[in-house]
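URGENT: need a sanity check before tomorrow's submission.

F., can you look over the Cu2+-exporting ATPase record below? I want to be sure the sequence and structure line up before it goes out.
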Amino acid sequence: AVPLVVAKSTALSAKNGLLIKNRTAFENSRKITTIVFDKTGTLTVGKFEVSKVVSLQKELLENEILRLASALEQKSEHPIATGILQKVKELSLPIPATENFNAITGKGVEATVEGKKILVVSPGYLKENNIPIPDSFEVNDTETVVFVLINNALAGFIALSDEIRPESAEAIKTLKQNNIKSILLTGDNDKVAKSVSETLGMDSFMAQVLPHQKLEKIKELQGKGEFVAMTGDGVNDAPALAIADVGIAVGSGSDIAAETAGIILVNSNPKDVVNLILFGKATYRKMM
Ligand code: ADP
Ligand code: MG
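Structure tokens as predicted:
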């Protein structure tokens, strides 16, 4: 039987945007010492808007870069894809068909479009493949960038911006007041991660983290004696959510993340993570 205080808190949680799937996760929430947050869609709104398109080849138009990228992105569900497709829609560009589409996990997408091999990839992918980033490359620290390659030659880049959620700063501040560390974990580039982490006053950040590394990062923190909660939304986040002491899936995310996690943040609001911990503490204090 579920003790009454727990039942009450669970109902109270539902009102506050928390869905508790697993009572152990709720019980564990009071012991959390570190929370690992994913960035996009949890600390940020998760809506990317194209802020800049730059061609790096003579006689290659910006719209052509967008048009080719959109062919690949129509096959992807990443928030970056949604942002690029929105821009292409606004410009009324026709989206060409693709063949051999492939998602390169944590790095981007590739496909054949009109007989050409097209890649839309992260700065990390360029580094790994020793493709130099040109001098004309300049974006704000808050912008996410993807590069477009045509037949393995760098053709241009697309910068996108997302916004920090208005609730995030207060959530991080309250965690700090309760002696709980917050760490940002993201597949996005270093500059963006640093900027979000510093703006919110988080304890540290880890950028360009590949999906299989997320799990390792959680284990690493646990090895240092931390009791770790993690928030995540993607299919890629599921293994890390499973190993975390408290796995928290963001409501707007994938079904697999939701199935794996013990707790679901119905409104994707980071402040509800704080409520979870405070509820957990209050509930089990009453019982003991
Ligand atoms: P996150 O969930 O933190 O955004 P991902 O592993 O999903 O991390 O993505 C990491 C990086 O890989 C992105 O910042 C981007 O550079 C690149 N990427 C992933 N998917 C796409 C896509 N559909 N189009 C372009 N770039 C992508
Ligand atoms: Mg993700």
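My own read: The first helix runs from residue 4 to 15. The pocket of magnesium ion (ligand 2) is lined by residues 38, 40, 233-234 (CB under 6 Å). If you see anything odd, call me.
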